[in-house]
Amino acid sequence: MLHGLGTELLDSLNQQGFSTREYIVYGPEWWLYVINRIAEHPERVLEAIADIGPLV
């Protein structure tokens, strides 16, 4: 699971006895990784913005 996303699900799976991992993107090439993920699923950008909600 990507670091910081779905922590409730991660905790729930751990409590059920499942082994889990968090994937953390870092290093000098992190932005290329992010751009590639956006290119694979551009609709997720809109979902992420919608999840932020109103900023006012």
Describe the secondary structure blueprint for this structure.
Elements: H1 7-15, H2 30-40, H3 43-52
Description:
It is a single chain. The protein has 56 residues and is mainly alpha-helical. It has one domain (7-52). It has helices at residues 7-15, 30-40, 43-52.
- Number of distinct helices: 3
Order of helices and strands: HHH
Count of domains: 1
Extended strand count: 0
Mean pLDDT: 80
Structural class: mainly alpha
Task: Bin the strand percentage.
Answer: under 5%
Oligomer: single chain
Short description:
The protein is 54% helix and 0% strand. It is mostly helical and 56 residues long.
Structural key phrases:
56 residues, mainly alpha, 3 helices
